[in-house]
Amino acid sequence: MFEDNRARVALRDFIAELNAAWEAAGPPSYARLEKLSISMGSGEQAGGLRLRVLAASTTHEILRGKRRSLPEWGWVVSFVNVLRAAAAENGLDPDVVGTIAEWKAIHQRARVLTGAGRQPAGATPAAAAGDHGDDADHGGGQGDDQDGDQDHLGPPADRAPPRPVATVA
Question: Could you tell me if 72 and 141 are in contact, meaning their C-beta atoms sit under 8 angstroms apart?
C-alpha cells in the first residue's frame, strides 16, 4: 500500500513539474504545441530520438493527470523541446522550461519512484524494457526509456531533489 501511494505521489509530482514547465513557456495552447511539433519536423533530438508530434489530446490527457502511468521519455523530451521553442517564440528564455539533462534526471527519478523501471515478476526482458513492438506515441507508457540507456539513480535518499522549474510572473 505504501508503494502504491508513493508511486501515485511521484506521478502526481512529475505531472505538476510538466505543468509548471508548460506555464513557464507561455503557456502555449495544446493546439499550438501540436503545430510547433509538426513544424519542427521529425529531426533528431537528445539521445538520438526523433521529435514526436504532440497530439493535443495526448498532451491534454497527460497534463491533466488522466493517464495512470509515467509518460514515455520520448514524449517528455519532445514536449520539453517544443516548450523551449514556444518559450523563445513568446520572448522568454528557453531555460525557464529546463534543460533536457535536467528533465532526464527528473524523469529518471520519477521512474524509480513509480516503479516504472522495475521488471514485473515473470515479465520478459523485452517487455520490461518497454518493447511494445512499435514506435507509436502512446503518451503514457510505463517503463520504456526509449533512448535505451540504463540510467539508474539509486535510492531517492542518495539524490538531491530535482531543481524546480522557474515560473514567469
Answer: yes
Q: How far apart are CA 148 and CA 39, in angstroms?
A: 26
- Give the orientation angle of helix 56-63 with respect to helix 30-39, to 10 degrees: 130
For residue 125, give the C-alpha cell: 526482458
Residue 128: CB atoms within 10 A of its CB come to 15
pTM of the model: 0.69
Helix (H) or strand (E) holding 102: helix 100-114
Q: How far apart are CA 22 and CA 6, in angstroms?
A: 24
Written in H, E and C, the secondary structure of 130-144 is CCCCCCCCCCCCCCC
Per-residue cell: 41: 519536423
Q: What is the pLDDT of residues 63-107, one digit of tens each?
A: 999 999 999 999 999 999 999 999 999 999 999 999 999 999 999
Residue with cell 524509480: 112
